[in-house]
Design a protein that fits this description.
By secondary structure, the chain is α/β, with parallel strands linked by helices. Helices cover about 35% and strands about 20% of the residues. It is built from 31 helices and 41 strands. Strands 1-2-4-3-5-6-9-10-11 form a nine-stranded mixed sheet. The longest helix has about 35 residues. The chain is globular. It starts with a helix and ends with a helix.
Length: about 1000
C-alpha cells in the first residue's frame, strides 16, 4: 500500500476511534474500564453516615479509620485499583475502615446537617470500630475530613484513639487563607456576610468542583487537551479513567448549608480550631484536649491549605506530640495520584506499624519540636507566585521581597482600618449619650440578640448559651419580677454566686428599669442592704439561709430549679411566665443614661462604701473596654472575678456586651485550672484585678500555656513589676491597664502598653480630666491669685479632677464649681497623679492611703514602684504605722523564690524617690495579705506595728539616707514620735 494511503488509513482509523470513544464519553461520562472497587462491606448504616470495612477478610493489623471531607465522596480513598489508599494500607498490613457521609443531596435530611452531626458521627464510628476490632483506632482525615478528625479526637479527649493523621487540614486561618487570599478576609470580609446567606442554601458539588479547577486553570485546560488528543487511544487513557471521572464529575457532592455556615463562622471567621472554644453539641471543645500523637501531612505547593494553616496544629494542640511529613504536592496530590500512592500512603502504613512497635518511623516523617514556630509559606502569591519564581530564577527573590513588603503594609493598613471601622461607631455612640438617652445593659443585650440570635453569648462550666437562649431566660425572669411586685426604679438586692441565673437576673432588672444592688456573699449583708437602700433581696439556694433573717425587706429564691432543698423563701422558679399578665406600665429597657442602674460595694467595716453606677457610667466602661481592647465576635472575654466585683460588671460583662464578644464566666478563679479553662473556652482576653495574676505568673509551666491564644489581660491595679512579669511569661499577650474613678466619669487607659505602671491617657468619650495642685493637709484645692485652681506642671503631683456635665451636677459626688472657669463643674476623684512630659498619667496614691508622717504627707505610689522594680521582689505593700500623733512610712515586701534582700539593694532602689517620700522602715514578710480580688490588705501589717529587731528581716533608714538592719536601739528611736523626724 502506498505511503500516502497508509497515512490516510491510519488517520481514518484514528478519527474513527476518536469519534467512537467521544460518543461513549458523551453518553456515559467516560469509559467502562472494567475496574472493580476494592472489596468492602457496610458494617452499619446510621442517620449521618455508613461505616465501610474494606478487605473484611484480609486479616488484622493496626486499625485505620479514614474520614472524607464534606464536598468529596468517600471514594477518594478508593478511586481505582491503581489509585487506592485502602489497597496500599491493606497490602502493608493495616486494617482500613472508611466513614461514608454519602451525597447529602440524596440523603434524607442530608442538606440540614451541621458540623456537630459530622463530628459526632466520626466519634460514633470510632466506638463501633473499636467494638468490632478490640483495638484503638488511628483516626485519619483529608482536608476538612482532617478537621473532623481533630474535632472528634478533642471531643473524646483522645479516648480510644491511637493517633491522629491528617492531610492538608487547616487549623489556623490567621496566617493565611486558601487561594492566596489575604488572612484579614477571614475576620473582616466573612464577618459582613449575613447568616442567611451562609446557611440558607447548600453549595452544589459542581460549584465546589469549578472552584477547585479555577485554582489551577492552566493545569485543568492542559489535562483536558491531553485527554482530547489521546481520545483515540483507549488503552492509554484507561489506567487514569477512573481518576479523571472522579475529579471531573463523580467525586463531588453538595455541602450542607448549616454545616457551611458553622464552618465559616467558627473556624474561618473566629479561628476557633486554633484558639479553642468551638461548640460541638452542647459542649465546648478545644484541640488542646488532644493528647495522642498527631501526624500531619503538609503539601508544600498546596493552594487550598497553605503550610502555615496546616502547621497551626503545633500551637492548637500543645499536649500532643506532633509529627510532620512534608511533600512537594498540592492539595489533591497529598492523597490522590502517583505521589500519594508512592509516598503518602506507604508512610501512613509505616506510621501505624511503627506505633504498634513493628518497624521504624518512616523516613519522611519527623517529630516537631514543641516550641518550634511554623515555617513561613514558601510560595508568596499562591500558585501564580510559585510559577513566577520558577520562571525568573534568582530574580524571584526580589519579587518575594517586594511581595512581603507590600503584604505587610497592606495587612497593617487593613488591621488599623478594621479596628477604626469597628471602634469609631462605638465611640461616636458613646459621645452622643446624654442624660435622657435610652441606654442600658438590657438594651444592648436585646440589640445583640436581634443581630445574632444563634451566636454564643456566654459560657459557663463548659456549656455554651446563645443570645436567643439567654433572652428567653431573661424574659422569663422579667415576668417573675413583675409577679413579685418589682417596678421601674426599685432597688433589688442580688445575693448569688457567679452563675447563669445571676447574670439573667441582673439583665432582667436592667430590662425592667430597676436597680441591681450586687450584694457580696462574703460581705456585711445587713450593712450593704442598708447602704443600697434595698426593698427586696433575691438569693440563690446556696445563700438562701443568709437572707432568711433579714428584717424590713422581702426575700425571694431564684435559680437551681429542681436541685436540692428550696427552703422557706418564696420560690420565683415556681412562677409560670406565660401566666403573668404584663401590666400597662411595662416598657422593655426604659432606662435612661442618667438613671441609676447598679450599686456595688467596696471595703469593709468603717471603710464600707456603696458606689452608685448610672447607665451612662456603665456604658462608658463597656464601650471603652470594647474599643480599647478592639473586641469583636471572634473574641472570648474570660471574667475571673465575681459578678459583684466592679471589674466583672463594667469591663468583662460590659465590654463583651458592647463588643459582641463571648463572655466566659468563672465560678471561681483557680490558677491551676486557668489554662485548661482558657483553652476550652477559646479565651482571647482575660480580666484581672490588682495582684490576681500573681499566682498564675508564679505557677509551674502548664502544657496548655504554650502557644496560648490570649492576646490581652485587661483590668486595673496591677503593679508594674507584676505587669512586666506577666508580659514576659505570657508573650505575646500584653497588659491593658484601665483606671476608672469611683467618683465622676473619668476613664484612663494605657493603650500602647509601652510604659508599665502608667495609666495612660483619657479614653475618648470619657470625661475631661486635669491635675490640680492640692492641699493634702487641709483636703482642698490650692487656689491662685485669681481664685481659680492651679493646674499642675509635668512631673508635679496633683489631684485628678474630672469634668462634670452641667446636667449631672446635682448627682455628682464631691462636685466643685468655678474651678478653672466661672461656670465649670468638676468632681474631685480623691486620687493623686502625676503626668509625664508625654501626657501619660501615673497614679501616686489615693487620699485614703496617704501616710501622715512627722515631716509631711507621703503617698505610697513612688515607694511601691521603686521597690517593685527590684527583680527579686514579688509583692510590695506601703502603709503607715501609728506612732504618737503621726505615722511612720513603712513598706513590706515578699520575695520571689529563695532571693535575699540586701540593704544596698534598698538604698539604690529608693534613690529614685524624693528623700522626704522614702520609707522609714522596710521589712521582709513571707506573704503580703491580699483580698479575694487580689487587692493588698495593709491593715494586718499596720496592726503589727514596728517589727522586732535582730532577725535580719527589717531595715531602717539612717540619718545619711542609707538602709541598715534594724537594731533594738534603732527600733526604740523609731517608736518615739520626735525621734521619727530625726531618723529622716
Amino acid at each position: 500500500m502506498p505511503a500516502v494511503a497508509k497515512t490516510l488509513f491510519r488517520l481514518g482509523a484514528r478519527l474513527g476511534s476518536t469519534a467512537q470513544n467521544a460518543l461513549e464519553v458523551a453518553r456515559f461520562g467516560g469509559f467502562d474500564t472494567d475496574e472493580d472497587a476494592s472489596p468492602r462491606e457496610v458494617v452499619t448504616e446510621q442517620r449521618v453516615y455508613r461505616l465501610r470495612h474494606y478487605f473484611p477478610d484480609g486479616g488484622g493489623g493496626p486499625v485505620m479509620l479514614l474520614v472524607p471531607p464534606l464536598m468529596i465522596t468517600a471514594e477518594v480513598y478508593d478511586i481505582s485499583s491503581r489509585v487506592s489508599a485502602v489497597r496500599v494500607l491493606r497490602e502493608a498490613g493495616v486494617d482500613p475502615w472508611v466513614v461514608d457521609f454519602g451525597a447529602p443531596e440524596r440523603e434524607p435530611g442530608g442538606l440540614e446537617r451541621t458540623i456537630t452531626d459530622h463530628v459526632l458521627a466520626v466519634s460514633d464510628a470510632v466506638d463501633r470500630v473499636r467494638k468490632v476490632t478490640g483495638r484503638d483506632v488511628h483516626l485519619a482525615g483529608y482536608s476538612q475530613g482532617g478537621m473532623f478528625v481533630y474535632q472528634a479526637a478533642a471531643y473524646r479527649r483522645s479516648d480510644g484513639i491511637e493517633s491522629v493523621v491528617t492531610f492538608g487540614s487547616p487549623t489556623d486561618t490567621s496566617v493565611a487563607l486558601p487561594f492566596g487570599l489575604p488572612a484579614w478576609l477571614a475576620s473582616e470580609g466573612v464577618g459582613r456576610v449575613p447568616d442567611w446567606v451562609l446557611g440558607g442554601f447548600a453549595v452544589p458539588g459542581w460549584v465546589t468542583r469549578f472552584g477547585f479547577q479555577l485554582l489551577s486553570p492552566v493545569k485543568s485546560v492542559r489535562s483536558r487537551v491531553d485527554f482530547i488528543l489521546q481520545l483515540h487511544d483507549r488503552e492509554r487513557l484507561a489506567p487514569r479513567e477512573r481518576q479523571r471521572r472522579f475529579l471531573e464529575r463523580e467525586g463531588w457532592v453538595s455541602w450542607p448549608g448549616p454545616a457551611l455556615a458553622e464552618f465559616v463562622r467558627q473556624f474561618v471567621q473566629h479561628n476557633r480550631m486554633l484558639t479553642g472554644g468551638f461548640v460541638i453539641g452542647d459542649r465546648l471543645v478545644t484541640l488542646a484536649d488532644i493528647t495522642c500523637p498527631v501526624l500531619t501531612f503538609v503539601g508544600e505547593v498546596d493552594e487550598i491549605a497553605p503550610p502555615p494553616m496546616v502547621r497551626g496544629i503545633r500551637r492548637a494542640a500543645p499536649r500532643a506530640q506532633v509529627y510532620e511529613a512534608s511533600l512537594r504536592a498540592g492539595h489533591f496530590g497529598l492523597v490522590v495520584g502517583s505521589l500519594a500512592i508512592a509516598r503518602t500512603w506507604p508512610a501512613v502504613a509505616g506510621w501505624a506499624k511503627w506505633r504498634a512497635g513493628e518497624g521504624l518511623l518512616p523516613d519522611i516523617v519527623a517529630p516537631v519540636a514543641g516550641d518550634e514556630e511554623a515555617a513561613p509559606a514558601g510560595l508568596p502569591g499562591g500558585s501564580a507566585g510559585y510559577g513566577l519564581q520558577l520562571a525568573v530564577g534568582v530574580g524571584g527573590s526580589v519579587a518575594r521581597s517586594a511581595y512581603r513588603t507590600v503584604s505587610r503594609a497592606v495587612h497593617g493598613t487593613r488591621q488599623l482600618g478594621g479596628e477604626a471601622a469597628q471602634n469609631l461607631p462605638r465611640l461616636a455612640r458613646l459621645e452622643r449619650i446624654q442624660s435622657d438617652t435610652r441606654m442600658s445593659m438590657g438594651l444592648l443585650l436585646d440589640e445583640q440578640a436581634r443581630r445574632m440570635p444563634d451566636e454564643v453569648f456566654f459560657l459557663y462550666k463548659g456549656r455554651p448559651y446563645t443570645h436567643e437562649a439567654a433572652k428567653r431566660r431573661v424574659d422569663a425572669v422579667v415576668r417573675g419580677l413583675i409577679q413579685v411586685g418589682v417596678r421601674r426604679g426599685d432597688s433589688v438586692g442580688v445575693l448569688m454566686r457567679t452563675r447563669p441565673t445571676a447574670l439573667a437576673l441582673v439583665a432582667a432588672l436592667s430590662r425592667l428599669g430597676a436597680v441591681a444592688v450586687l450584694l457580696r456573699p462574703d460581705g456585711d449583708l445587713a450593712a450593704e442592704v442598708r447602704l443600697g437602700r434595698v426593698s427586696r433581696v433575691i438569693a440563690d439556694p446556696e445563700h438562701a439561709a443568709q437572707v432568711e433573717g433579714l428584717e424590713g425587706v422581702e426575700t425571694h429564691l431564684l435559680g437551681g430549679a429542681g436541685r436540692g432543698e428550696r427552703g422557706s423563701l418564696m420560690d420565683m422558679e415556681a412562677i409560670d411566665p406565660e401566666a403573668v399578665a404584663v401590666p400597662g406600665w411595662f416598657r422593655a429597657n426604659p432606662g435612661r443614661a442618667g438613671d441609676l442602674a447598679f450599686v456595688v460595694f467596696r471595703g469593709e467595716g468603717e471603710l464600707l462604701r456603696a458606689h452608685r453606677i448610672t447607665n451612662r457610667r456603665w456604658a462608658l466602661s463597656a464601650f471603652g473596654t470594647a474599643s480599647s481592647a478592639s473586641l469583636s465576635p471572634s473574641d472570648t472575654v474570660y471574667s475571673i472575678t465575681p459578678l459583684q466585683h466592679p471589674s466583672a460588671l463594667l469591663m468583662s460583662l460590659g465590654g463583651a456586651v458592647a463588643g459582641g464578644a463571648r463572655l466566659a464566666l468563672a465560678s471561681a478563679y483557680d490558677p491551676e485550672t486557668f489554662w485548661d479553662e482558657a483553652r476550652r473556652y477559646g479565651v482571647t482576653v482575660a480580666s484581672y484585678t490588682w495582684m490576681l495574676l500573681r499566682d498564675l505568673v508564679e505557677a509551674p509551666p502548664d502544657p496548655a500555656e504554650r502557644h496560648h491564644a490570649v492576646r490581652l489581660f485587661i483590668g486595673s491595679g496591677m503593679p508594674r513589676g507584676l505587669w512586666r512579669r506577666v508580659e514576659e511569661r505570657f508573650a505575646p499577650a500584653r497588659v491593658l491597664e484601665f483606671y476608672a474613678s469611683t467618683e465622676g466619669e473619668s476613664v484612663l487607659v494605657n493603650l500602647s502598653g509601652k510604659k508599665p505602671g502608667s495609666l495612660g491617657r483619657p479614653l475618648p468619650g470619657s470625661a475631661e480630666v486635669r491635675l490640680a495642685r492640692y492641699d493634702l493637709e487641709n483636703g482642698r484645692l490650692d487656689l491662685g491669685a485669681d481664685g481659680f485652681a492651679i493646674e499642675c506642671e509635668p512631673g508635679e503631683i496633683g489631684m485628678l479632677l474630672a469634668r462634670v456635665r452641667l446636667s449631672a451636677v446635682g448627682t455628682a459626688g464631691r462636685c466643685v464649681r468655678g474651678v478653672f472657669a466661672p461656670e465649670d463643674a468638676w468632681t474631685i476623684t480623691g486620687d493623686l497623679f502625676r503626668r509625664d512630659g508625654a501626657g501619660d498619667f501615673w497614679l501616686v496614691g489615693r487620699e485614703a492611703e496617704l501616710i501622715r508622717t512627722g515631716e509631711g504627707i507621703v503617698p505610697p505610689g513612688p515607694i511601691r514602684d521603686a521597690l517593685g522594680d527590684l527583680p527579686f521582689v514579688d509583692t510590695v505593700a506601703v502603709y503607715g504605722i501609728p506612732v504618737g500623733e503621726s505615722e511612720l512610712a513603712a513598706a513590706a515586701v515578699s520575695l520571689r523564690g529563695v532571693a535575699e534582700l540586701k540593704p544596698v539593694d534598698l538604698s539604690e532602689a529608693l534613690l529614685r524617690v524624693e528623700p522626704g517620700l522614702r520609707p522609714a522602715i522596710v521589712r521582709v514578710v513571707d506573704e503580703v495579705p491580699v483580698t479575694a480580688g487580689g487587692r493588698l490588705r495593709t491593715a494586718p501589717l499596720r496592726d503589727e506595728g514596728v517589727p522586732p529587731a535582730g532577725e535580719g528581716m527589717a531595715y531602717y533608714r539612717d540619718k545619711a539616707g542609707a538602709y541598715r538592719p534594724l537594731t533594738d536601739a534603732a527600733r526604740r528611736r523609731l517608736l518615739k514620735a520626735p525621734a521619727a523626724r530625726e531618723a529622716r
